[in-house]
Structure formats: structure tokens, C-alpha cells
Specification:
Helix 4 runs antiparallel to helix 10. This protein has two domains: 66 residues, Winged helix-like DNA-binding domain superfamily/Winged helix DNA-binding domain (Arc Repressor Mutant, subunit A); 139 residues, Four Helix Bundle (Hemerythrin (Met), subunit A) (Up-down Bundle), CATH 1.20.120. Helices cover 70% and strands 5% of the residues. The relative contact order is 0.12. About 2% of the residues have low confidence. Strands 1-3-2 form a three-stranded antiparallel β-sheet. The protein is mainly alpha-helical.
């Protein structure tokens, strides 16, 4: 599921490296704790090591990789506490966004239909006869499309910026949650409760639906 093709434009090379490594982590090519060799990435992408170094520095800032002096760069290990912290931040910000959507009546029927369409696409993916890794990545992408649409509709630029800042960590956390404790179909259909609570403007139900969408919370793991 890696993005293809990769551009050779010099200005974009470090971004190419960032996307390649992120995609490789999501696809399970790089697993937590794996050593990322600059030379391997440069060879794979057919570029010099300088933009690889720049890309790795960017990933370090995002907390996705960790560089240990004289030892090299490794995929960051996310502990259960790390995953919980990412979800706690998400719940805090997204619950505030949902309040804005409800109090300011920001979602119209066309928006709800669009959200329902995304959920149906997730359900269709859950029913596909494909590799579980590919299935979880595809559902994860649609899941993030669903929530990003909601974030953007709020018009809350600062909250959206904070959520976008942990976007990849959110994707990792959601994949962990789905793969370790969940069911693809349930993960998809849980979104209907979020839609209905937003449509009925029920804030308490909205909070409950969002929390229970995170399977680890629903099952009492956190």
C-alpha cells in the first residue's frame, strides 16, 4: 500500500522520504523498534542520503522515529500509555469540536449523507476478501477521512491544527486499537452512532458514541 510513484523533484525529496517511511510503518514493513538505515531508504527511492537525513529529522520532530547517537534511527515504540494519551488528546479536542458543530448548527443534511457514504465505504472494505493488513489500512484511511471532515466543518482552526499535528500518531493508535482488540465491521458501523448523535444534537450521546468508537475504551482496556 505504499504511495507510487515517487517524485524526483529535489524540493520534494525529503517529503517523499517522510511519506515512504510513514507508509512503510502503516504497512508493517517497518515495525516498532526496527532500525531504519539511511542507505537502504536512499537505495530504495533512488536518491542521495541528504534528503533521507532531512526526512528523518522531520519524522523525529513528529515523534515517529527516534535517533540514538552512534547507534542510528529506530521506529519509535508506542507503549499502551502512549496510545491512551493520544486518544485522550483526541477525545478532548474532538468533543469540543462536536459541541461547536451542535451549538452552531454547522452540519447540514448533505454533510450527514457524506458521512454515511464514508461509513458505507468502510463496511464494503470490511467485507472485501483481502489481506487483513491491507484491509485495516484502507478502513483506517476512511476512518480518518470521516473524522477530518467533521474537524474541518467546525471551522475551529486551532483545534484542527492540533489534531493534524498528531495525525500520524492517531493513525497508529487507531490501527493498534483495531488490530489488537477490534472487529473491522464493528469499527465501521460504530460511526453511525456518532452521526445520529450529531444529527439529533445530543451532546452527551455524542461523547458516549465517540468514546465507545475507540474499542479499547469500550472494552475497559484503558
Amino acid at each position: 500500500m505504499l504511495r507510487q510513484p515517487y517524485t524526483s523533484n529535489r524540493e520534494n525529496l525529503s517529503g517523499v522520504v517522510v511519506n515512504y517511511i510513514k507508509d512503510s510503518i502503516l504497512a508493517g514493513i517497518y515495525k516498532e523498534g526496527d532500525h531504519i538505515l539511511e542507505s537502504d531508504v536512499a537505495l530504495k527511492l533512488g536518491i542521495s542520503r541528504a534528503p533521507v537525513r532531512e526526512g528523518i529529522r522531520e519524522l523525529e520532530k513528529e515523534g515517529i522515529v527516534t535517533t540514538i547517537p552512534r547507534r542510528g534511527t529506530y521506529v519509535t515504540k508506542f507503549t499502551e500509555e502512549d496510545i491512551k494519551e493520544v486518544f485522550d488528546i483526541r477525545l478532548l479536542l474532538e468533543n469540543n469540536i462536536n459541541k461547536i458543530l451542535i451549538y452552531e448548527d454547522k452540519l447540514k443534511e448533505d454533510d450527514f449523507r457524506h458521512l454515511e457514504k464514508l461509513v458505507k465505504e468502510m463496511e464494503d472494505i470490511a467485507d472485501m476478501q483481502i489481506d487483513d493488513t491491507e484491509k485495516s489500512i484502507l478502513i483506517n484511511q476512511k476512518d480518518m477521512d470521516f473524522h477530518r471532515f467533521i474537524w474541518q466543518k467546525s471551522g475551529s482552526q486551532r483545534r484542527v491544527k492540533l489534531l493534524e499535528g498528531i495525525f500520524f500518531q492517531l493513525r497508529i493508535a487507531m490501527l493498534y486499537d483495531m488490530n489488537e482488540t477490534g472487529d473491522y465491521k464493528i469499527s465501521a458501523t460504530d460511526h453511525y452512532a456518532i452521526i445520529e448523535s450529531l444529527r439529533s444534537k445530543d451532546i452527551d450521546q455524542c461523547k458516549k458514541a465517540l468514546r465507545e468508537h475507540i474499542i479499547s475504551y469500550k472494552e475497559g482496556k484503558f
